Amino acid sequence: IVVKHLEPFRLSLEKLKVVSTRLRKDMIRGLGKHTHHRAAVKMLPTFVRATPDGTEKGDFLALDLGGTNFRVLHVRVMEEEQKMVKMDSQLCAIPQEIMLGTGEQLFDHIAACLSEFLDSQNLKGQTLPMGFTFSFPCEQKEIDKSILIRWTKGFNCSGVEGEDVVKLLKEAIHRRGDYDISSVAMVNDTVGTMMSCGYRDQTCEIGMIIGTGTNACYMEEMKNVKRVEGEDGQMCINTEWGGFGDDGSLEDILTEFDKVVDRTSINPGVHTFEKMISGMYLGEIVRLVLMKLTEKKLLFKGEVSEALRTKETFETKFISMIEDGLENAKKILTELGLTWDLVDARVVRLVCETISSRSARLCAAALATIVDRIRVNRGLPHLKTTVGVDGTVYKKHPNDELQKAMHFLTPDCKIKFLVSEDGSGKGAAMVTAVAHSLSKHPHCMMVPPLCFTVRND
Ligand code: BGC
């Protein structure tokens, strides 16, 4: 009977194919000049036109905002050794009041953290090129102009959606008046991940995050990016695949639990795909399933504990811990104030496995769509490529499910996964470095100190 309740989470490989076909169509819609306004999958141009070639070098400042912390890093890129070294960094927590406060408060907090770091490093007189990893969907006008479309992942600061994030940061710095910055290259974390892996492995042309949120980017042919002028070369597209399904296209695979998670989130109706996959939501899905099974008297002799009844008490990290072994399951269930027996512990483990395996399979369906698109774009029968990956959900879970599904969905492609080491931090430096070296390129329209647009005319 338990299995019957878990059935809606089990997606067959055939179903994954259907999901992949839908995403393929949505990606085309997102790229289109006249269709992108209404597209659920936004396919945002990033103005990053090249992956690293290994000759990049220099000192950079990187800012990173995407989770519950803000970080500033001083990164040195060394050409001789082809490596990036984090010289120093500072972390500032973003308390919940700020995540849900005003934009002004958020950017004042960021500017203060940056100021402290520059002081501690004695960098206030200098103007190092700066990259800002801002891991939210942004409509980029240029590499240094980035308008927030919407907050995700628990952020909801007022007065930022629809505004240019670089402008808000600069205004906050001017309000302080103790230092200034020049240009800022804006980077999504997927792009940072692709670029930092790309420095190590130049075949890396996809970046994927499965962490608090989920998303991927890849190198698309410019001729298909109808919203940006120019036909030659490539541009990295931030797919924002988390929004897949926001137009109702995933209705047939949404379970009653997914609907509750969405309804009780701070952004109902948006980022449907993300809510089935990423760390911010997986624990809550498991909790809701456990509640239901308990109500049906299939678990814990029908007795729900106070903790289990409370929203978000079942943390996503419990899932991988429980998958690791029954002993962990027993410990966690006791901590949640539940009275359990061995059968209960096994059932809970099955629930965790089911939810995390659905997440992995859905990711595989989406990633397969991108990989196959690159293959078709290049007119190749087979494609060998590398995906840079980051995010706790990817790192903490066994990934054989994802790889098995990929193998089935893209039999013509050979995919290497490269786990990024701090792509959000170092990747921002790399984007800035590549933008700098492109600005020395003869075909580049110079907009000092960064090259924003490469034209061949
Ligand atoms: C955001 C993306 C980001 C992803 C992973 C999503 O919620 O919309 O921009 O890349 O999370 O951090």
TrEMBL record:
Residues 4-199 form the Hexokinase N-terminal domain. Keywords: ATP-binding, Glycolysis, Kinase, Nucleotide-binding, Transferase. Its EC number is 2.7.1.-. Pfam families: Hexokinase_1 (PF00349), Hexokinase_2 (PF03727). Residues 205-434 form the Hexokinase C-terminal domain. GO terms for molecular function: ATP binding; D-glucose binding; fructokinase activity; glucokinase activity. One of its GO terms (cellular component) is cytosol. SUPFAM superfamilies: Actin-like ATPase domain. It catalyses: D-glucose + ATP = D-glucose 6-phosphate + ADP + H(+); a D-hexose + ATP = a D-hexose 6-phosphate + ADP + H(+). GO terms for biological process: glucose metabolic process; glycolytic process; intracellular glucose homeostasis. The keyword Transferase applies. Gene3D superfamilies: 3.30.420.40, 3.40.367.20. Pathway: Carbohydrate degradation; glycolysis; D-glyceraldehyde 3-phosphate and glycerone phosphate from D-glucose: step 1/4; Carbohydrate metabolism; hexose metabolism. Belongs to the hexokinase family. PANTHER family: HEXOKINASE, PHOSPHOTRANSFERASE. This is Phosphotransferase. It comes from Xiphophorus couchianus.
